[in-house]
Amino acid sequence: MVLCRVPRWSVRLWASPGWWRTTCTLRALVRPKRGPGCPGGASGPLACRTFSRVSSCPPEVMLTQERYPVRRLPFSVVSEEDLAAFECIVPGRVVTDPEVLEVSNVDWLRTARGCSKVLLRPRTSEEVSRILRYCHERNLAVNPQGGNTGLVGGSVPVFDEIILSTALMNQVTSFNSVSGILTCQAGCVLEGLSRYVQERDFVMPGPCHIGGNVATNAGGLRFLRYGSLRGTVLGLEVVLADGTVLDCLTSLRKDNTGYDLKQLFIGSEGTLGVITAVSILCPPKPKAVNVAFLGCPGFAEVLQTFSTCRGMLGEILSAFEFMDAECMQLVQQHLHLASPVQESAFYLLVETSGSSTGHDAEKLGCFLEQVLGSGLVTDGTVATDESKAQALWALRERITEALSRDGYVYKYDVSLPVERLYDLVTDLRARLGSQARHVVGYGHLGDGNLHLNVTVDAFSTTLLDTLEPYVYAWTAGQRGSISAEHGLGFRKRDALGYSKPPHAVQLMQHLKALLDPKGILNPYKMLPTQA
Ligand SMILES: O=C(O)CC[C@@H](O)C(=O)O
Ligand SMILES: [Zn+2]
Protein backbone atom coordinates (compact mmCIF):
# COMPACT_ATOMS: atom_id res chain seq x y z
CA MET A 1 0.00 0.00 0.00
CA VAL A 2 1.36 3.41 -0.96
CA LEU A 3 0.91 5.96 1.79
CA CYS A 4 0.29 9.28 0.18
CA ARG A 5 -1.89 12.29 0.72
CA VAL A 6 -4.46 13.27 -1.85
CA PRO A 7 -2.53 15.66 -4.09
CA ARG A 8 -3.51 19.30 -3.68
CA TRP A 9 -1.87 20.53 -6.81
CA SER A 10 -3.77 21.15 -9.91
CA VAL A 11 -3.25 19.09 -13.05
CA ARG A 12 -5.21 18.83 -16.22
CA LEU A 13 -6.95 15.59 -16.78
CA TRP A 14 -7.32 14.73 -20.39
CA ALA A 15 -10.64 13.00 -20.04
CA SER A 16 -12.84 14.56 -22.64
CA PRO A 17 -12.45 16.66 -25.76
CA GLY A 18 -10.67 19.87 -24.77
CA TRP A 19 -8.63 20.31 -21.65
CA TRP A 20 -10.08 20.06 -18.21
CA ARG A 21 -8.36 21.83 -15.43
CA THR A 22 -9.34 20.19 -12.22
CA THR A 23 -8.01 19.37 -8.83
CA CYS A 24 -6.49 15.97 -9.10
CA THR A 25 -7.65 13.33 -6.71
CA LEU A 26 -6.22 9.89 -6.36
CA ARG A 27 -9.46 8.54 -7.75
CA ALA A 28 -9.09 10.69 -10.82
CA LEU A 29 -5.67 9.28 -11.43
CA VAL A 30 -6.97 5.73 -11.40
CA ARG A 31 -7.50 5.05 -15.04
CA PRO A 32 -9.94 2.56 -16.48
CA LYS A 33 -8.55 -0.82 -17.47
CA ARG A 34 -7.16 -0.61 -20.95
CA GLY A 35 -8.48 -2.85 -23.64
CA PRO A 36 -6.36 -4.90 -26.00
CA GLY A 37 -4.27 -3.15 -28.57
CA CYS A 38 -3.50 -0.11 -26.38
CA PRO A 39 -1.41 1.77 -28.89
CA GLY A 40 -0.68 4.59 -26.53
CA GLY A 41 1.12 2.74 -23.90
CA ALA A 42 0.43 -0.88 -23.15
CA SER A 43 2.29 -2.00 -26.19
CA GLY A 44 6.05 -1.76 -26.31
CA PRO A 45 6.67 -0.52 -29.77
CA LEU A 46 6.00 3.16 -30.04
CA ALA A 47 9.28 4.03 -31.68
CA CYS A 48 7.90 2.77 -34.96
CA ARG A 49 7.61 5.56 -37.50
CA THR A 50 4.03 5.16 -38.60
CA PHE A 51 3.57 8.49 -40.35
CA SER A 52 3.66 8.93 -44.07
CA ARG A 53 6.21 10.52 -46.35
CA VAL A 54 6.51 14.23 -46.00
CA SER A 55 5.06 15.50 -49.24
CA SER A 56 2.90 14.05 -52.00
CA CYS A 57 5.19 15.44 -54.70
CA PRO A 58 8.61 15.62 -53.10
CA PRO A 59 11.62 17.12 -54.85
CA GLU A 60 14.15 14.76 -56.41
CA VAL A 61 16.65 13.42 -53.89
CA MET A 62 20.30 13.96 -54.76
CA LEU A 63 22.25 10.76 -55.46
CA THR A 64 24.38 9.74 -52.49
CA GLN A 65 27.38 9.30 -54.80
CA GLU A 66 27.02 12.95 -55.87
CA ARG A 67 26.50 14.42 -52.42
CA TYR A 68 29.34 12.58 -50.70
CA PRO A 69 32.87 11.71 -51.79
CA VAL A 70 32.51 7.96 -52.27
CA ARG A 71 33.90 5.64 -54.95
CA ARG A 72 32.19 2.54 -56.32
CA LEU A 73 34.04 -0.65 -55.40
CA PRO A 74 34.86 -3.09 -58.22
CA PHE A 75 31.75 -5.26 -58.01
CA SER A 76 30.18 -6.78 -61.12
CA VAL A 77 27.28 -5.05 -62.82
CA VAL A 78 23.94 -6.91 -63.02
CA SER A 79 23.51 -8.43 -66.49
CA GLU A 80 20.56 -9.92 -68.38
CA GLU A 81 21.88 -13.39 -67.48
CA ASP A 82 21.88 -12.45 -63.81
CA LEU A 83 18.27 -11.32 -64.04
CA ALA A 84 17.36 -14.62 -65.68
CA ALA A 85 19.15 -16.52 -62.90
CA PHE A 86 17.28 -14.53 -60.24
CA GLU A 87 14.00 -15.22 -62.03
CA CYS A 88 14.71 -18.94 -61.58
CA ILE A 89 15.32 -18.49 -57.86
CA VAL A 90 12.41 -16.11 -57.07
CA PRO A 91 9.99 -16.47 -60.00
CA GLY A 92 7.82 -13.38 -60.50
CA ARG A 93 9.60 -11.57 -57.68
CA VAL A 94 12.43 -9.89 -59.55
CA VAL A 95 11.53 -6.19 -59.73
CA THR A 96 13.12 -3.97 -62.37
CA ASP A 97 10.33 -1.39 -62.76
CA PRO A 98 12.06 1.99 -62.17
CA GLU A 99 9.04 3.45 -60.38
CA VAL A 100 8.93 0.64 -57.84
CA LEU A 101 12.70 0.74 -57.49
CA GLU A 102 12.67 4.48 -56.81
CA VAL A 103 10.87 3.89 -53.49
CA SER A 104 13.49 1.37 -52.36
CA ASN A 105 16.42 3.42 -53.62
CA VAL A 106 15.51 6.43 -51.45
CA ASP A 107 15.68 6.40 -47.65
CA TRP A 108 12.82 7.39 -45.39
CA LEU A 109 14.33 10.80 -44.66
CA ARG A 110 14.74 11.44 -48.41
CA THR A 111 18.38 12.38 -47.95
CA ALA A 112 20.13 9.34 -49.45
CA ARG A 113 19.58 7.81 -52.87
CA GLY A 114 21.08 4.87 -54.67
CA CYS A 115 20.57 3.73 -58.25
CA SER A 116 19.89 0.01 -57.95
CA LYS A 117 18.37 -1.57 -61.02
CA VAL A 118 16.95 -4.67 -59.36
CA LEU A 119 15.00 -5.59 -56.25
CA LEU A 120 14.55 -9.22 -55.19
CA ARG A 121 11.70 -10.38 -52.97
CA PRO A 122 12.46 -13.83 -51.50
CA ARG A 123 9.94 -15.65 -49.30
CA THR A 124 12.18 -18.22 -47.63
CA SER A 125 15.65 -18.57 -46.14
CA GLU A 126 16.39 -21.11 -48.84
CA GLU A 127 15.72 -18.47 -51.51
CA VAL A 128 17.92 -15.94 -49.68
CA SER A 129 20.63 -18.57 -49.51
CA ARG A 130 20.45 -19.27 -53.25
CA ILE A 131 20.49 -15.55 -54.07
CA LEU A 132 23.54 -14.89 -51.91
CA ARG A 133 25.39 -17.95 -53.18
CA TYR A 134 24.84 -16.66 -56.70
CA CYS A 135 25.84 -13.05 -55.88
CA HIS A 136 28.91 -14.27 -54.05
CA GLU A 137 30.07 -16.26 -57.05
CA ARG A 138 29.33 -13.38 -59.43
CA ASN A 139 30.80 -10.70 -57.11
CA LEU A 140 27.53 -8.77 -57.07
CA ALA A 141 26.94 -6.35 -54.18
CA VAL A 142 23.75 -6.73 -52.11
CA ASN A 143 21.84 -4.24 -50.00
CA PRO A 144 19.58 -6.08 -47.51
CA GLN A 145 16.46 -4.03 -46.85
CA GLY A 146 13.75 -4.36 -44.18
CA GLY A 147 11.25 -1.55 -43.55
CA ASN A 148 13.63 1.12 -44.91
CA THR A 149 13.01 3.36 -41.91
CA GLY A 150 16.67 3.80 -40.97
CA LEU A 151 18.04 7.28 -40.26
CA VAL A 152 21.69 6.90 -41.25
CA GLY A 153 21.45 5.89 -44.90
CA GLY A 154 22.12 2.23 -44.09
CA SER A 155 19.04 0.69 -45.67
CA VAL A 156 19.37 1.97 -49.24
CA PRO A 157 22.05 1.31 -51.87
CA VAL A 158 24.84 3.82 -52.38
CA PHE A 159 25.42 2.78 -56.01
CA ASP A 160 23.75 -0.07 -57.91
CA GLU A 161 23.73 -2.77 -55.21
CA ILE A 162 20.99 -5.37 -55.61
CA ILE A 163 18.22 -4.68 -53.11
CA LEU A 164 17.29 -7.81 -51.18
CA SER A 165 13.95 -7.09 -49.54
CA THR A 166 12.71 -9.20 -46.63
CA ALA A 167 9.18 -7.79 -46.94
CA LEU A 168 7.62 -11.08 -48.10
CA MET A 169 9.28 -13.06 -45.32
CA ASN A 170 6.47 -12.26 -42.95
CA GLN A 171 5.32 -15.49 -41.34
CA VAL A 172 5.06 -16.21 -37.61
CA THR A 173 6.58 -19.64 -37.02
CA SER A 174 5.52 -20.21 -33.42
CA PHE A 175 4.47 -18.52 -30.20
CA ASN A 176 4.69 -20.06 -26.75
CA SER A 177 2.07 -18.51 -24.49
CA VAL A 178 3.75 -19.75 -21.30
CA SER A 179 7.24 -18.43 -21.98
CA GLY A 180 6.19 -15.57 -24.29
CA ILE A 181 8.76 -16.66 -26.88
CA LEU A 182 7.91 -15.70 -30.45
CA THR A 183 9.69 -17.11 -33.49
CA CYS A 184 9.08 -15.43 -36.82
CA GLN A 185 10.57 -14.54 -40.17
CA ALA A 186 12.62 -11.37 -40.44
CA GLY A 187 10.17 -9.41 -42.57
CA CYS A 188 7.33 -9.41 -40.01
CA VAL A 189 6.18 -5.88 -39.38
CA LEU A 190 5.92 -4.90 -35.78
CA GLU A 191 2.35 -3.65 -35.99
CA GLY A 192 1.13 -7.08 -37.03
CA LEU A 193 3.36 -8.86 -34.53
CA SER A 194 2.21 -6.56 -31.77
CA ARG A 195 -1.41 -7.32 -32.52
CA TYR A 196 -0.61 -11.02 -32.62
CA VAL A 197 1.14 -11.15 -29.25
CA GLN A 198 -1.23 -8.70 -27.57
CA GLU A 199 -4.14 -11.00 -28.36
CA ARG A 200 -2.18 -13.50 -26.33
CA ASP A 201 -1.50 -11.04 -23.46
CA PHE A 202 2.09 -10.16 -24.34
CA VAL A 203 3.83 -7.18 -25.94
CA MET A 204 6.75 -6.83 -28.34
CA PRO A 205 9.89 -5.57 -26.61
CA GLY A 206 11.32 -3.56 -29.53
CA PRO A 207 10.30 -1.24 -32.36
CA CYS A 208 9.21 -1.72 -36.06
CA HIS A 209 10.33 -4.26 -38.77
CA ILE A 210 11.74 -7.13 -36.78
CA GLY A 211 14.70 -8.19 -38.95
CA GLY A 212 15.80 -4.61 -39.61
CA ASN A 213 15.48 -3.79 -35.96
CA VAL A 214 17.62 -6.68 -34.90
CA ALA A 215 20.14 -5.87 -37.65
CA THR A 216 20.40 -2.30 -36.37
CA ASN A 217 19.85 -3.16 -32.69
CA ALA A 218 17.21 -0.42 -32.63
CA GLY A 219 16.47 1.10 -29.23
CA GLY A 220 13.00 2.58 -29.03
CA LEU A 221 10.85 4.33 -26.50
CA ARG A 222 10.76 1.61 -23.86
CA PHE A 223 14.39 0.59 -23.82
CA LEU A 224 14.38 1.86 -20.25
CA ARG A 225 11.92 -0.89 -19.35
CA TYR A 226 12.61 -3.79 -21.72
CA GLY A 227 16.29 -3.26 -22.39
CA SER A 228 18.27 -3.91 -25.55
CA LEU A 229 17.37 -6.42 -28.25
CA ARG A 230 20.68 -7.97 -27.27
CA GLY A 231 18.88 -9.26 -24.20
CA THR A 232 15.48 -10.11 -25.64
CA VAL A 233 16.57 -11.79 -28.88
CA LEU A 234 17.12 -15.44 -28.01
CA GLY A 235 18.03 -16.84 -31.39
CA LEU A 236 18.66 -15.93 -35.02
CA GLU A 237 18.78 -17.60 -38.38
CA VAL A 238 21.26 -15.79 -40.64
CA VAL A 239 22.29 -16.37 -44.23
CA LEU A 240 25.98 -15.64 -44.68
CA ALA A 241 27.54 -13.91 -47.68
CA ASP A 242 28.35 -17.20 -49.44
CA GLY A 243 24.82 -18.55 -48.95
CA THR A 244 25.51 -20.69 -45.88
CA VAL A 245 22.47 -20.82 -43.59
CA LEU A 246 23.57 -20.35 -39.97
CA ASP A 247 20.85 -21.83 -37.79
CA CYS A 248 21.18 -20.30 -34.32
CA LEU A 249 17.42 -20.00 -33.98
CA THR A 250 17.14 -21.42 -30.47
CA SER A 251 14.49 -20.32 -27.99
CA LEU A 252 16.47 -20.86 -24.82
CA ARG A 253 16.82 -18.31 -22.06
CA LYS A 254 20.10 -19.84 -20.97
CA ASP A 255 22.71 -21.29 -23.30
CA ASN A 256 26.37 -20.97 -22.38
CA THR A 257 27.83 -23.12 -25.13
CA GLY A 258 30.65 -21.33 -26.88
CA TYR A 259 30.63 -17.83 -28.36
CA ASP A 260 27.25 -16.17 -28.55
CA LEU A 261 27.34 -15.81 -32.35
CA LYS A 262 23.94 -14.18 -32.69
CA GLN A 263 25.34 -11.10 -30.93
CA LEU A 264 27.68 -10.60 -33.88
CA PHE A 265 24.74 -10.12 -36.21
CA ILE A 266 22.61 -8.01 -33.87
CA GLY A 267 23.53 -4.44 -34.75
CA SER A 268 25.76 -5.46 -37.69
CA GLU A 269 23.54 -3.52 -40.11
CA GLY A 270 23.44 -6.25 -42.74
CA THR A 271 27.21 -6.20 -43.23
CA LEU A 272 27.92 -9.70 -41.90
CA GLY A 273 24.88 -11.68 -42.98
CA VAL A 274 21.17 -11.41 -43.78
CA ILE A 275 18.94 -12.10 -40.78
CA THR A 276 16.10 -14.32 -42.01
CA ALA A 277 14.37 -15.40 -38.78
CA VAL A 278 14.27 -14.26 -35.17
CA SER A 279 13.28 -15.79 -31.86
CA ILE A 280 12.41 -13.14 -29.31
CA LEU A 281 11.22 -13.01 -25.72
CA CYS A 282 8.03 -10.96 -25.32
CA PRO A 283 7.17 -9.47 -21.93
CA PRO A 284 3.61 -9.85 -20.59
CA LYS A 285 1.20 -7.08 -21.50
CA PRO A 286 0.91 -4.61 -18.60
CA LYS A 287 -2.58 -4.33 -17.12
CA ALA A 288 -2.27 -0.68 -16.14
CA VAL A 289 -0.63 2.06 -18.18
CA ASN A 290 -0.48 5.74 -17.21
CA VAL A 291 0.97 8.60 -19.21
CA ALA A 292 1.85 11.99 -17.76
CA PHE A 293 3.06 14.97 -19.77
CA LEU A 294 4.88 17.60 -17.72
CA GLY A 295 6.45 21.03 -18.15
CA CYS A 296 9.84 21.78 -16.53
CA PRO A 297 11.49 25.21 -16.13
CA GLY A 298 15.10 24.09 -16.81
CA PHE A 299 17.34 21.12 -17.53
CA ALA A 300 18.51 20.92 -13.91
CA GLU A 301 14.85 20.39 -12.96
CA VAL A 302 14.50 17.76 -15.69
CA LEU A 303 17.37 15.80 -14.13
CA GLN A 304 15.99 16.11 -10.61
CA THR A 305 12.57 15.03 -11.82
CA PHE A 306 14.19 11.97 -13.37
CA SER A 307 15.93 11.06 -10.10
CA THR A 308 12.71 11.53 -8.18
CA CYS A 309 10.85 9.49 -10.74
CA ARG A 310 13.27 6.59 -10.55
CA GLY A 311 13.08 6.66 -6.79
CA MET A 312 9.30 6.82 -6.57
CA LEU A 313 8.10 4.89 -9.63
CA GLY A 314 10.99 2.44 -9.90
CA GLU A 315 9.65 -0.87 -11.11
CA ILE A 316 6.61 0.51 -12.96
CA LEU A 317 8.45 3.21 -14.92
CA SER A 318 8.36 2.27 -18.62
CA ALA A 319 9.41 5.48 -20.41
CA PHE A 320 11.02 8.78 -19.48
CA GLU A 321 11.27 11.01 -22.54
CA PHE A 322 12.18 14.67 -22.86
CA MET A 323 11.88 17.37 -25.51
CA ASP A 324 12.85 21.03 -25.51
CA ALA A 325 10.74 24.11 -26.24
CA GLU A 326 11.85 24.27 -29.90
CA CYS A 327 10.59 20.72 -30.46
CA MET A 328 7.21 21.72 -29.11
CA GLN A 329 7.21 24.77 -31.36
CA LEU A 330 7.95 22.58 -34.41
CA VAL A 331 5.21 20.00 -33.73
CA GLN A 332 2.78 22.86 -33.23
CA GLN A 333 3.87 24.68 -36.39
CA HIS A 334 4.17 21.75 -38.78
CA LEU A 335 1.75 19.17 -37.41
CA HIS A 336 -0.75 21.48 -35.70
CA LEU A 337 -0.58 19.55 -32.45
CA ALA A 338 -1.59 21.49 -29.36
CA SER A 339 0.50 21.60 -26.23
CA PRO A 340 -1.43 20.19 -23.29
CA VAL A 341 0.58 22.20 -20.75
CA GLN A 342 1.76 25.75 -20.24
CA GLU A 343 4.75 26.91 -22.27
CA SER A 344 7.91 25.54 -20.65
CA ALA A 345 11.62 25.28 -21.37
CA PHE A 346 11.40 21.46 -21.34
CA TYR A 347 8.68 18.85 -21.52
CA LEU A 348 8.68 15.34 -20.12
CA LEU A 349 6.64 12.30 -20.95
CA VAL A 350 6.52 9.78 -18.15
CA GLU A 351 4.85 6.43 -18.67
CA THR A 352 4.19 3.73 -16.11
CA SER A 353 3.27 0.15 -16.97
CA GLY A 354 2.32 -2.22 -14.22
CA SER A 355 -0.08 -4.87 -13.09
CA SER A 356 -2.32 -3.00 -10.65
CA THR A 357 -4.37 -0.04 -11.84
CA GLY A 358 -5.08 1.47 -8.43
CA HIS A 359 -1.63 0.88 -7.04
CA ASP A 360 0.13 2.35 -10.08
CA ALA A 361 -2.14 5.41 -10.16
CA GLU A 362 -1.46 6.02 -6.46
CA LYS A 363 2.26 5.84 -7.01
CA LEU A 364 2.08 8.18 -9.98
CA GLY A 365 -0.07 10.54 -7.90
CA CYS A 366 2.52 10.65 -5.12
CA PHE A 367 5.27 11.32 -7.64
CA LEU A 368 3.33 14.12 -9.31
CA GLU A 369 2.51 15.68 -5.98
CA GLN A 370 6.17 15.65 -5.06
CA VAL A 371 7.52 17.18 -8.28
CA LEU A 372 4.77 19.77 -8.64
CA GLY A 373 4.92 20.66 -4.94
CA SER A 374 8.67 21.21 -5.07
CA GLY A 375 8.55 23.30 -8.24
CA LEU A 376 10.56 20.83 -10.34
CA VAL A 377 7.54 20.61 -12.59
CA THR A 378 5.35 23.63 -13.24
CA ASP A 379 2.41 22.11 -15.10
CA GLY A 380 1.17 18.63 -15.88
CA THR A 381 -1.40 16.51 -17.61
CA VAL A 382 -2.40 12.93 -17.05
CA ALA A 383 -4.18 11.02 -19.81
CA THR A 384 -7.18 9.15 -18.59
CA ASP A 385 -8.00 7.13 -21.66
CA GLU A 386 -6.12 5.35 -24.36
CA SER A 387 -6.64 7.77 -27.23
CA LYS A 388 -5.57 10.69 -25.07
CA ALA A 389 -2.48 8.82 -23.97
CA GLN A 390 -1.74 8.28 -27.63
CA ALA A 391 -2.18 11.98 -28.31
CA LEU A 392 0.36 12.78 -25.58
CA TRP A 393 2.77 10.27 -27.08
CA ALA A 394 2.29 11.86 -30.51
CA LEU A 395 3.84 15.10 -29.25
CA ARG A 396 7.05 13.24 -28.59
CA GLU A 397 6.93 10.56 -31.28
CA ARG A 398 6.19 12.90 -34.17
CA ILE A 399 9.10 15.29 -33.61
CA THR A 400 11.11 13.53 -36.33
CA GLU A 401 8.28 14.14 -38.78
CA ALA A 402 7.95 17.81 -37.78
CA LEU A 403 11.69 18.28 -38.25
CA SER A 404 11.56 16.77 -41.74
CA ARG A 405 8.94 19.35 -42.66
CA ASP A 406 11.18 22.15 -41.44
CA GLY A 407 13.91 21.69 -44.05
CA TYR A 408 17.04 19.61 -44.49
CA VAL A 409 17.88 17.89 -41.19
CA TYR A 410 21.34 17.02 -39.85
CA LYS A 411 20.75 14.24 -37.34
CA TYR A 412 22.82 13.17 -34.38
CA ASP A 413 21.96 10.40 -31.96
CA VAL A 414 24.40 10.35 -29.08
CA SER A 415 24.83 8.71 -25.70
CA LEU A 416 26.18 11.05 -23.05
CA PRO A 417 26.42 11.19 -19.28
CA VAL A 418 22.89 12.31 -18.46
CA GLU A 419 24.02 15.45 -16.62
CA ARG A 420 25.81 16.70 -19.78
CA LEU A 421 23.05 15.64 -22.17
CA TYR A 422 21.74 19.10 -23.01
CA ASP A 423 25.06 20.96 -22.94
CA LEU A 424 25.80 19.81 -26.49
CA VAL A 425 22.57 21.40 -27.73
CA THR A 426 23.30 24.72 -26.02
CA ASP A 427 26.86 24.68 -27.26
CA LEU A 428 25.85 23.96 -30.84
CA ARG A 429 23.14 26.59 -30.84
CA ALA A 430 25.77 29.19 -29.94
CA ARG A 431 28.24 27.78 -32.47
CA LEU A 432 25.81 27.81 -35.39
CA GLY A 433 23.95 31.04 -34.65
CA SER A 434 21.85 32.08 -37.63
CA GLN A 435 23.30 29.35 -39.87
CA ALA A 436 20.61 26.99 -38.57
CA ARG A 437 16.86 27.32 -38.54
CA HIS A 438 16.57 25.19 -35.44
CA VAL A 439 18.89 23.28 -33.16
CA VAL A 440 16.76 20.96 -31.05
CA GLY A 441 17.33 18.37 -28.37
CA TYR A 442 15.01 15.55 -27.34
CA GLY A 443 15.17 11.86 -26.70
CA HIS A 444 15.32 9.02 -24.27
CA LEU A 445 16.57 10.78 -21.19
CA GLY A 446 16.08 7.66 -19.14
CA ASP A 447 18.70 5.94 -21.33
CA GLY A 448 21.12 8.89 -21.57
CA ASN A 449 20.28 9.15 -25.29
CA LEU A 450 20.06 12.59 -26.90
CA HIS A 451 18.59 13.18 -30.37
CA LEU A 452 20.27 16.36 -31.52
CA ASN A 453 18.81 17.69 -34.77
CA VAL A 454 19.74 20.77 -36.78
CA THR A 455 17.40 22.07 -39.48
CA VAL A 456 18.43 24.34 -42.35
CA ASP A 457 16.95 25.49 -45.67
CA ALA A 458 19.03 23.06 -47.74
CA PHE A 459 21.97 20.67 -47.39
CA SER A 460 25.33 22.43 -47.36
CA THR A 461 28.77 20.86 -47.21
CA THR A 462 30.07 23.92 -45.37
CA LEU A 463 27.58 23.43 -42.57
CA LEU A 464 28.31 19.71 -42.53
CA ASP A 465 31.98 20.60 -41.98
CA THR A 466 31.01 22.90 -39.12
CA LEU A 467 29.03 20.10 -37.49
CA GLU A 468 31.36 17.19 -38.14
CA PRO A 469 33.61 16.11 -36.65
CA TYR A 470 32.81 18.76 -33.99
CA VAL A 471 29.77 16.87 -32.61
CA TYR A 472 31.68 13.59 -32.63
CA ALA A 473 34.74 15.05 -30.93
CA TRP A 474 32.53 16.72 -28.29
CA THR A 475 30.79 13.42 -27.63
CA ALA A 476 34.07 11.49 -27.48
CA GLY A 477 35.35 14.10 -25.01
CA GLN A 478 32.60 12.94 -22.65
CA ARG A 479 33.33 9.28 -23.42
CA GLY A 480 29.90 9.11 -25.03
CA SER A 481 28.79 7.18 -28.10
CA ILE A 482 28.36 8.86 -31.47
CA SER A 483 25.50 6.50 -32.24
CA ALA A 484 23.30 5.50 -29.35
CA GLU A 485 20.62 3.62 -31.27
CA HIS A 486 20.46 4.52 -34.97
CA GLY A 487 23.65 2.76 -36.03
CA LEU A 488 26.36 4.08 -38.36
CA GLY A 489 24.97 3.22 -41.79
CA PHE A 490 26.52 5.17 -44.62
CA ARG A 491 26.59 8.59 -43.02
CA LYS A 492 28.42 7.88 -39.79
CA ARG A 493 30.74 5.04 -40.70
CA ASP A 494 33.83 7.24 -40.84
CA ALA A 495 33.12 8.46 -37.30
CA LEU A 496 33.37 4.98 -35.76
CA GLY A 497 36.84 5.82 -34.43
CA TYR A 498 35.32 8.46 -32.11
CA SER A 499 33.61 5.72 -30.14
CA LYS A 500 35.86 2.69 -30.60
CA PRO A 501 39.64 2.34 -30.22
CA PRO A 502 41.77 1.42 -33.30
CA HIS A 503 42.15 -2.20 -32.19
CA ALA A 504 38.41 -2.63 -31.92
CA VAL A 505 37.87 -1.12 -35.40
CA GLN A 506 40.58 -3.41 -36.78
CA LEU A 507 38.98 -6.47 -35.20
CA MET A 508 35.64 -5.47 -36.75
CA GLN A 509 37.36 -5.25 -40.13
CA HIS A 510 38.87 -8.71 -39.64
CA LEU A 511 35.48 -10.13 -38.75
CA LYS A 512 33.97 -8.55 -41.86
CA ALA A 513 36.74 -10.04 -44.02
CA LEU A 514 36.24 -13.46 -42.42
CA LEU A 515 32.48 -13.58 -42.89
CA ASP A 516 32.24 -11.65 -46.15
CA PRO A 517 35.63 -11.92 -47.89
CA LYS A 518 34.40 -10.24 -51.08
CA GLY A 519 32.67 -7.46 -49.14
CA ILE A 520 29.40 -7.89 -51.07
CA LEU A 521 27.07 -7.40 -48.08
CA ASN A 522 25.87 -3.84 -47.59
CA PRO A 523 29.11 -2.26 -48.81
CA TYR A 524 29.97 1.37 -47.90
CA LYS A 525 28.13 0.92 -44.58
CA MET A 526 29.12 0.76 -40.91
CA LEU A 527 32.87 0.27 -41.26
CA PRO A 528 35.14 3.23 -42.10
CA THR A 529 36.31 3.77 -45.67
CA GLN A 530 39.58 1.93 -46.15
CA ALA A 531 42.42 3.64 -47.96
O1 LIG B 1 14.74 11.59 -35.68
C1 LIG B 1 15.47 11.40 -34.72
O2 LIG B 1 16.51 12.06 -34.55
C2 LIG B 1 15.08 10.34 -33.66
C3 LIG B 1 14.13 9.28 -34.12
C4 LIG B 1 13.77 8.25 -33.05
O3 LIG B 1 14.88 7.55 -32.63
C5 LIG B 1 13.03 8.84 -31.89
O4 LIG B 1 13.38 8.55 -30.76
O5 LIG B 1 12.03 9.55 -32.11
ZN1 LIG C 1 15.12 7.44 -30.50
UniProtKB/TrEMBL annotation:
GO cellular component: mitochondrion
Protein role: Catalyzes the oxidation of D-2-hydroxyglutarate (D-2-HG) to alpha-ketoglutarate. Also catalyzes the oxidation of other D-2-hydroxyacids, such as D-malate (D-MAL) and D-lactate (D-LAC). Exhibits high activities towards D-2-HG and D-MAL but a very weak activity towards D-LAC.
Annotated keywords: FAD, Flavoprotein, Metal-binding, Mitochondrion, Oxidoreductase, Transit peptide, Zinc
Domain FAD-binding PCMH-type: from-to ranges: 111-285
Molecular functions per Gene Ontology: (R)-2-hydroxyglutarate dehydrogenase activity; FAD binding; metal ion binding
A Pfam family matched in the record: FAD-oxidase_C
Protein's UniProt name: D-2-hydroxyglutarate dehydrogenase, mitochondrial
GO biological process, alphabetically ordered: malate metabolic process
E.C. code: 1.1.99.39
Lineage per the UniProt record: Eukaryota, Metazoa, Chordata, Craniata, Vertebrata
Acyltransferase among keywords: no
Keyword Cytoplasm: no
Source organism: Spermophilus dauricus
Major location (coarse): mitochondrion
Family designation: Belongs to the FAD-binding oxidoreductase/transferase type 4 family.
InterPro entries the UniProt entry points to: FAD-bd_oxidored_4_C, FAD-bd_PCMH, FAD-bd_PCMH-like_sf, FAD-bd_PCMH_sub1, FAD-bd_PCMH_sub2, FAD-linked_Oxase-like_C, FAD-oxidored/transferase_4, Oxid_FAD_bind_N
Catalytic activity as recorded in UniProt: (R)-malate + A = oxaloacetate + AH2; (R)-2-hydroxyglutarate + A = 2-oxoglutarate + AH2
Cofactor(s) it depends on: FAD
Subcellular location, record wording: Mitochondrion
